[in-house]
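cron nightly-structures :: item 1 of 1
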Amino acid sequence: MTIPFLFPPPSSWFVTLMSILSCLSLANGGYMEIKGKHMPYSKFFNVMATKKPHKDREIKLASRNGMLLLYTPAFLVGLVCFASSLNQGLRLVMVISVLTVHFLKRVLEVLLVHKYSGSMALDAAIPISLSYTISTATTIYAQYLSQPFHEPLIDLKYAGTTLFAIGIVGNFYHHCILSNLRKKGDKEYKIPKGGLFDLVICPHYMFEIVEFIGVFCICQTTFSLSFALGTMFYLIGRSYATREWYVAKFGNKFNKDVKALIPYIL
């Protein structure tokens, strides 16, 4: 059956398997966040880790170095693919470009925007880094395999570029607000204000979802759809866990009308 906004799925068992695994693993990650089992780069995880003495035997990285390890390999994959794709067709170049820009932004935020406390375990950072890298490479590979097919009846790549731009700018803006909450040497958490933080506690996640919907619209492949859905499910769970954390930490100081992810709704 032809779906008017998708390329036909490629005859690749690897891409098919990755489409299923990426969506299910990310959705499960969101469910685990709701259940209180957090990713190792989370502030929630760092709080819980202090209660586990056996964790002291792990190899620890400074948080900044750990975050660089998460994002830099995926950025390099995008950069290498971009250098070899300039004669491969507009859509493939667009896909590689937005993925490269996405991870370049993350690397620059790690270096120039975010403020850190705590550390990250090396054995936790490596699989997360591999996940980002493999997902990026698979997105590009799936796009490459779609090239022999006719374009989808509904072309979404320009709408996707607009959504990606809105998502990445909105995400960056709210990351800057979060970073500016802390002065130099200040390690206390505060309730964020400004931007859309007065309506939702995780507008940066909302814009990240918009960003990945944009990536899907540029790709229009089954893998990118699976990955966008998985990302959405994960960030819904993470935003819910974030709101619960703020409610528990700040009590009556936290405005209960502030939603987790979508203003007035969720």
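cron nightly-structures :: done
The beta strands are 60-62, 119-121.
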